């Protein structure tokens, strides 16, 4: 019994946490302290805060992965949720490890916009597209994150002649098409953009660098 109790403690999952990007909500955890327990499998449950019963996540029942996609189970973005994980090895089951409370609307990270660069002779025209959520409209297209938040776009330009690290904010606002004018021909410019949520004071990562020579 003592050995079993020890194994229970040793395989108990650690650091159970939700990670979320554009409402793609996944539960992650670390293995227990028993690193050599190769045959460990994991079981995931979830519930809405305030509910008494936990729901099994069938796709994450007896899995070897240490990540579980709960996007569909946490689709009411205003609700807070919990996840929990237990492990089994050699017929011994650990206790449950609980996540912190997770509120998708407050906590999801928002991705950068998609940026398309069109160049003309002394200007660059940018087309920006908001990141999309996993949730779909009736017609099947994915709902953009602008449906859930008041988003601003921040556009930065890098003049490669001057300094590759020096980013200048050239635009902040909601326009999807932006023209950057009075640029010098023959010079390489790179554009990067972020989404910014004023209400939460949160910025996305930078979009990938789009470079062009006028």
From TrEMBL:
- The organism's place on the tree of life at top rank: Eukaryota
Q: Which CDD domains match?
A: FN3
Tell me the Pfam families matching this sequence.
Interfer-bind, Tissue_fac
Kindly indicate whether the keyword Signal belongs to this entry. Answer: yes
Instruction: List each copy of the Fibronectin type-III domain by range.
Output: 12-107
What's this chain's function?
Receptor for IL22. Binds to IL22, prevents interaction with the functional IL-22R complex and blocks the activity of IL22 (in vitro). May play an important role as an IL22 antagonist in the regulation of inflammatory responses.
- The name under which this protein is listed is Interleukin-22 receptor subunit alpha-2
Q: Which organism is it from?
A: Aptenodytes forsteri
